[in-house]
């Protein structure tokens, strides 16, 4: 038992993020855990309106405005077979594959690598006529969270993106309008063990996903155009992204 404890502690040290030494860390820690709590709240209670549905995928919004700009919070739930939460959040976080699934992007640059699991990223998005082109500057963090409500269940994984500032990309330069965003993808795997006691394969995996997003467009854009863009883009994103991860993981060893 003592040996196992020591081994566990050693692993914690070995896999611990280097991010805690960074000045952004207190904010990253606070926002990530807040987003996790927020994602785990249900969509019952009448404040969320269903605006898109496709099979297991359901997307809800709350219509909200700040200074006359629509900033509607979005919450989506989905269930995907054959992948784990770790795989889902890994591909959402990893900048190497972002152009494979993110169709709103024109350019992307990693401005700072705070740790293996924490980056600062600048993205330039495609222009939507007649609005000005948008960019987004945010920290991005991914982590495993032990499941404290059910110790027998698989751990939860979260990837969280939140707007920040960086000396290499001041927001008042150039003609881009900077959006402000807080986004999280929270995933949990369940395993239906094979009845014959055989090995667990991808056929026995189900991943439950919650995606939450609040984007402030940062400058004027007609509310109707904005709502039309996200009504089209969010379902497109979640379907394309989850299919990408399924295809990418197929025939690969499972990453729990
Ligand atoms: O979470 C998603 N992606 C992450 C990695 O890229 C990250 C990005 C968040 C997106 C921030 C929105 C930036 C403005 C996009 C401008 C719209 C381009 C449409 C191009 C169509 C050809 O967290 C998945 C994001 C899914 C896409 C969301 C679309 C959100 C629309 C918000 C509109 C803002 C202003 C639009 C001006 C017309």
Protein traits:
Alpha-D-Glucose-1,6-Bisphosphate, Chain A, domain 4, 27% helix, globular, binds N-((E,2S,3R)-1,3-dihydroxyoctadec-4-EN-2-yl)palmitamide, 256 residues, 34% strand, 5 helices, alpha+beta
Can you offer a commentary on this structure?
The protein is an alpha+beta fold and 256 residues long. It has one domain (2-249): START domain (Alpha-D-Glucose-1,6-Bisphosphate, Chain A, domain 4, 2-Layer Sandwich), CATH 3.30.530. 27% of the residues lie in helices and 34% in strands. It is built from five helices and twelve strands. Strands 1, 2, 5, 6, 7, 8, 9, 10, 11 and 12 form a ten-stranded mixed sheet that branches. Strands 3-4 form a two-stranded antiparallel ribbon. α3 (85-93) crosses α5 (223-249). The two termini are 24 Å apart. The structure holds N-((E,2S,3R)-1,3-dihydroxyoctadec-4-EN-2-yl)palmitamide (16C). N-((E,2S,3R)-1,3-dihydroxyoctadec-4-EN-2-yl)palmitamide (16C) is lined by residues 102, 104, 123, 125-126, 128, 131, 134, 136, 161, 179, 181, 183, 213, 215, 217, 221, 225-226, 229-230, 233-234, 237.
Pairing-aware structural class of the strands and helices? Answer: alpha+beta
Spell out the CATH superfamily: START domain
Estimate percent helicity. 25-40%
What is the CATH C level class, in words? Alpha Beta
Instruction: Return the CATH topology.
Output: Alpha-D-Glucose-1,6-Bisphosphate, Chain A, domain 4
CATH architectural type: 2-Layer Sandwich
Q: Work out the oligomeric state of the chains in this entry.
A: single chain
Distance between the termini: 24 Å
What's the gyration radius in Å?
A: 19 Å
| Beta-strand content bin | 25-35%
Q: What is the β-strand count?
A: 12
What about the largest sheet? 10 strands, mixed
Ligands, ions, cofactors? N-((E,2S,3R)-1,3-dihydroxyoctadec-4-EN-2-yl)palmitamide
Number of domains: 1
> Can you count the helices?
5
Uncertain spans? 6-15
Arithmetic mean of pLDDT: 92
| Shape summary | globular
Order of helices and strands: HHEEEEEHHEEEEEEEH
